[in-house]
Amino acid sequence: MSSIEKPLVGIVCCRRMQDSHYFHVVGEKYINAINQHTGCSGVLVPVDQNDDIDQSILNRMDGFLLTGSLSNVHPDQYDKEIINHEMLLDESRDRSVFKMIQSIIQKEMPLLAICRGFQEMNVAFGGSLYQNLELQSGHQGHDFDRDASHEQQYGFRHQVEITEGSLLHKISGLVNADVNSLHTQGVNALSDQLEINALSDHGLVEAFTIKAAKGFNLSVQWHPEWQPSKSELSLTIFNAFGDACRAFAVLK
């Protein structure tokens, strides 16, 4: 299939200040994962645009990826006070993503959410987050060493137990798997509209789907976009997402 025929996957951007100007940015690993492992073509989607621009973009997409980020969901979004005022935030992305999620689900468009995206999904459906797992919970050791090499940062850190009968179990055939772990925050209260697909060995929610959604959707806390070909589970996730996007493109 030529690139001109491939389904289009929207990849949400983050909005960052650099040299006194705002830039809309996406980690290259997310772009590569979509372009190389789904059979689709990634399209970068800016944030903080007018509603008609957002809808015009979404109407042309066949799938959507909510990426991870160095920034965090503003605690105002889940009615909590900030515990660390040095925490990196991106309220422009917050405003855009929470509007887009509902539209994506209504369109039954395939949706894959990773790390911050996973956390956004929980908050969007009424759940809450630990702003710092180390300080606020018994879930320890999920963060990473910022000075370590990429190979060390993205190395397998712990196992997840995959819920039998869940979407993640159906597409992978696995009941447990090794995953990386690069997150300071995590799910505190899981929305009752979401269904657990995987838990860490200490019971932290690591993957879920939306109970009532008709389209393909999967949210994961770890980073399958990092060298997917080196992980059976990661490759399975992107292959299944790509299959769903192609099916959506045919029916759209």
CATH superfamily: Class I glutamine amidotransferase (GATase) domain
Helix content: 25-40%
Give the strand tally: 13
Number of helices: 8
- Main pleated sheet: 9 strands, mixed
CATH topology: the name is Rossmann fold
CATH class category name: Alpha Beta
Radius of gyration: 17 Å
The class by helix and strand makeup works out as alpha/beta
Q: Taking strands numbered 1, 2, ... along the chain, how are they ordered across the largest sheet?
A: 4-1-5-6-13-12-11-8-9
CATH architectural label: 3-Layer(aba) Sandwich
Distance between the termini: 19 Å
Overall mean confidence score, pLDDT = 94
Proportion of residues in β-strands: 15-25%
Element pattern in H and E: EEEHEHEHEHEHHEHEEEEEH
Number of domains: 1
Sequence stretches where pLDDT stays below 50 over 5 or more residues? none
Shape, principal axes of CA atoms? globular
List keywords for this structure.
252 residues, alpha/beta, Rossmann fold, two-stranded antiparallel ribbon, globular
Walk me through what this model shows.
With 252 residues, the protein is an alpha/beta fold. It has a single domain, classed as Rossmann fold. 31% of the residues lie in helices and 23% in strands. It is built from eight helices and 13 strands. The protein has helices spanning 28-37, 51-58, 91-106, 116-124, 133-136, 150-153, 167-172, 232-251; strands at 8-12, 14-18, 21-25, 41-45, 63-66, 111-114, 129-130, 158-162, 176-179, 186-187, 194-200, 205-210, 217-220. The strands form three sheets. Strands 4-1-5-6-13-12-11-8-9 form a nine-stranded mixed sheet, with helices on both faces. A two-stranded antiparallel sheet has the order 2-3. Strand 11 (194-200) and strand 12 (205-210) form a beta hairpin. It is globular. The model has no long low-confidence stretch (mean pLDDT 94).
